[in-house]
Every structure is written in C-alpha cells, then in structure tokens.
Amino acid sequence: MRSLGVLTALWVASWGAEGLAQKATESCAGCHEQSQRVQASAHVGVGCAGCHPQHEAYPHPAGVAKPDCAECHATVAAQHAGSVHGRALKAGNAAAPDCTVCHGGAHEVKRATAGEFRQGVPELCGMCHSQVAEEYRASVHGAAGQRGVAAAPVCTDCHGEHSILSHQSQTSPVSAGHIRETCGQCHGSAQLSRRFGLPDDRLISFDASFHGLAAKAGSQSVANCASCHGVHNILPSTDRRSRTHPRNLPATCGQCHPGAGRRFALGTVHQGEGRGEGPAVVWARYGYRILIPLVIGLMVLHNLGDWARKLWLRRFRGAGPLPFRAFEPELRMYGWERLQHGLLVISFAVLVWTGFALKYPDQWWARPLVDWERYWPVRGTLHRIAGVVLLAVAAAHVTTLVLSRRLRQHWKTLWPRRTDVAEAVGTLAYNLGLMSPKPRLSRHSYIEKAEYWAVVWGTVIMAATGLMLWFNSVLLAWWPKSVLDFATVVHFYEAILATLSIVVWHLYFVIFDPDVYPLDTAWLTGFSVKPRPAEAAEAGGAEEERQRDVPRE
C-alpha cells in the first residue's frame, strides 16, 4: 500500500509539473510567437521554462544565459565537437555549421527521424558542399531519393550524422578501410536487394577477389568500392557516363593497371562462383574438384594399405622389427640434388604458408603475417620471393642436367616406363588385399617417379599462373580479364593439389613408412636405408618373397 501511495504521489506531481509547464507556455504565447512555432518542433514537450530561466519575472531580466544544447544532448555535442565541423568552429571558422545550421533554431527544431528531414539532408549539406550535392543529385542514389524512395542513401548514411570525419581519418566510415562496410549496409542486405532488384552477390564477389582479400587484411591502397564506382557521382553501369560502363572500364581500371582493356574488353568484374564466369574458368574449377579427390583418395588408399600390411606383418605375425643388419644404404641423391631439394623444401613451405594466408587472412595461422600488413605487404612480398627461389631451383636443375653427365644418367632412372603402370596398379591391389604376391618394384619405382614428375608439372603450372597474377597489368593490357580469372582458379586449386600430395604421398614415404621410420635420410646424407630383400622376406613370409622372385613372362 505504501508503494502504491508513493507511485500515486509521483504521478500526481508529474502531472502537476506538466500542467504548470503547459500553463506557462500558454501564458508565454500571449506575447511571444515562438511559443506557437515550438508546438510543431521536436521541443514541444520541453516547455518554455526548460530553456528560459526566470521567465516568470516581468519585465524579463536582461542578460540571462540560455542553456547550451550540450546540457541536454551531451553525447551528440561531444560527437560534433570531434567532427570536422566542430574542429573548424573551434579553430575560429564562424561559417562552420553548428546545431542551429542543420537543425534550425531552438523553436523550429525538426525531428531528425522524420521523412521530411531525411529528404532534405542533401539540400542541407549542399548549402556548403554545392558541387558534391550537384554530383549526388545526378547519381543513382540522388535520383532514387528524388523519386521518393525513402531507403535511398543520403549524406548522413555514408558520412555519419554528428561525428563526420575526413575520409583520410582511419575511423571515418568513408575511409579506405571502412568503405566496404559502409557500402555493405545496403549492398549486403538481402532484404534491400530483393526489394529493389539489386544484385545480391556484390559484397561476396568483392570479398573473394584480390581487392577484397587485400582490404580485409588491412591494405589501405588496394582498390575499394569508391575506387571503381566513384564517390558521389555513382551511376549504374548501363549509363554511358558511369565509371563502370564497359567503354569506361579501361580508364577506371587503368588507374591501377595501365593499359588494361586496351586490346580486349575486360569483361565481367563482379563475378562470384558460378556467376558470370567464363567457360574456361568453370571447366577448370570443376575439373580440379574432380581431380583432387580422385588423386588424393587413391594416395590415401595406397598408403593406408601399405602401412596396414607392414603393421600386420611386424606386429601381429610375430616378425617384429627388422634387425639392424637387415638394412643396407643405397645412394639416392647426389650433392647438387640435395642442395636443390633443400631450397625446394624451403621455398615450397613459404609459398604454401603465404599463399593460403593471402586467400584466408582470417585464420589463426595467417595472423603472424597479416598483423604486419598495415606496415608492409609481408604476405605478397614473401610469396614472390619464394616463387623466385623456386624458379631459380628449377633453372639450376635443368642446368645441372645439361652440364653433368653423372646427374643426367641418374635422372634417366626417373624417366617413365610402361611397366610403371603395372607396378602401380599391382601394388595398390596388393595393399588393398586384392592380389598376392606383391609386384617387384624397380630401383626408382612409380613412387619416386610420381613424386618427381608431379613436382615438374606443378612447378610449370604454378610458375606460369603465378607470373600471370604477379604481372597482371601486363596481362590485362593484352588479354581479357577472363584469362586472369582462369589463372587465379588454376593457381589456387593446383596449390591445394600440390600441398595435399606432399602431405599424403611424399611425407609418408620419407617419414611414416615403417621401412624408413622415423626418417629417410637421403635428403641429408644422400643415402637411403632400406631392408634387404632377403631380410624383408624373412620378416614378411619366405613363401611370399619366393613368389616375388619368380621371373615374369
């Protein structure tokens, strides 16, 4: 009951205060016409007494200070003080806008949420920024606003309301680092896209592009939405005045890629997977999506079967590990080959790390590289350096083969033969338990040959597409953008195939193969230590080895 009484008293007091304020306002209206205007303003509920102290004294005392807007709107006032307008006022620029310039006098303040106020924002800002306002009115956004589209963006949607900052400020919504999020408020909205028939993949396709990935990592110089579409003069790509009209793309893209589109039309710019891609790009993408699971899947089956058979023979058939005398060293790599292999390992590891960090900058393993991007393009620089090292290794390999007869004779043992196919198929069938005995393998079998020629193939493909991506301006000056898109897809999927092949195939035979575990030392000493055939037969079954020794017909 006591609580109810207190609430009742508070309600009565509140009603009484409002009534007194209303009466005071009504009494002021007898002499002051401002009291009539305030009835249609945002301050209608404030009352004259809220801003005019000692108003009850008559004649009104002179020199009574009126309250500042900040007394009621402290947060907004602080935002304005830190904006370009507030700092200009503080610096003594009397023409810089304050509260009354944008919102009107205290008695005529319009509600900023009203549609009428929003529609008037371009004209309001145009009082000082006339040229910008003229460009805006002619743009696709301004034209939509003039048609009465309430959702059409106005100045405050992009620049902010009270905390307007220079586009050079990193915290500004129209700075290079934030322009994607600002434009994405509308162009990333599925609801607005459906409502106005806008493409719904613009943000997705940008994020997946080189420009989007670089921007996500913090690059301030890479092209963003405004770089291509303009700032205030944005027009649809079908308009011949638009910066993104097909005939204007060479000039627009030429800002960063001199000569782009000089010989061929650049083609579709915003293209997502399966949308607007050329036939070659589509075939390359789906070809690799079939090839990668097929190749890596066969590798996994082959190696799992090999490991399981050796585990069964040594653990469950009582043979146990082979004695030390059962192993014999075999020369597999000469000095030059080991040096080239070492450089290849280093360059490949750096290429994989930096390359996938370029594609997936949000991953935890990419953060040590991405954190430096604001100061130095570490990922791209290291990736290119490693690529040059890889090309140098390839050139050195070819040169040594030409100059050294000894290395050339060694290399000839890796030349493919028809029997390699039979060895590979037979060994896979043996590992899967589909046939017995295990086929006899050559000194350099299909295992080593597959590794070697996969490296050759991968190096050629990655080098060719990598150079196309590196010197993209030259490529775009002579070929359409679809060629660059094809190179991008091939480079990415070939990198996945190469990485998985190294992990699944190569690392198994140099580390996890029970015959060489914990490490095949050929890449360090040149000699590979493997079990003698007789000892392997003793461990794996004499009968099986005897069948292997039967000459082939």
Plain-language structure description:
The chain has about 550 residues and is mostly helical. Among the domains are: about 35-110, no CATH class; about 280-325 and about 330-500, Fumarate Reductase Cytochrome B subunit (Up-down Bundle). About 60% of the residues lie in helices and about 0% in strands. The protein is built from 29 helices and two strands. The protein has helices at about 1-30, 35, 50, 75-80, 85-90, 100-105, 115-120, 120-125, 130-140, 140-145, 155-160, 180-185, 190-195, 200-210, 210-215, 225-230, 250-255, 280-315, 335-360, 365-370, 380-405, 405-410, 420-430, 445-470, 470-480, 480-510, 520-525, 535-540, 540-550, and strands spanning about 325-330, 525-530. The protein has a two-stranded antiparallel ribbon with strand order 1-2. Helix 14 (about 200-210) crosses helix 15, helix 18 packs across helix 23 and helix 24 (about 445-470) packs antiparallel against helix 26 (about 480-510). The longest helix has about 40 residues, at about 280-315. It starts with a helix and ends in a 5-residue tail after the last helix.
- Taking all Cα atoms into account, the compactness measure Rg is 37 Å
CATH topology of one domain: Fumarate Reductase Cytochrome B subunit
What ranges have pLDDT less than 50 throughout 5 or more consecutive residues?
Answer: 6-21, 534-553
CATH superfamily of one domain: Transmembrane di-heme cytochromes, Chain C
**Strand order, sheet with most strands:** 1-2
- Measured distance between first and last alpha carbons: 110 Å
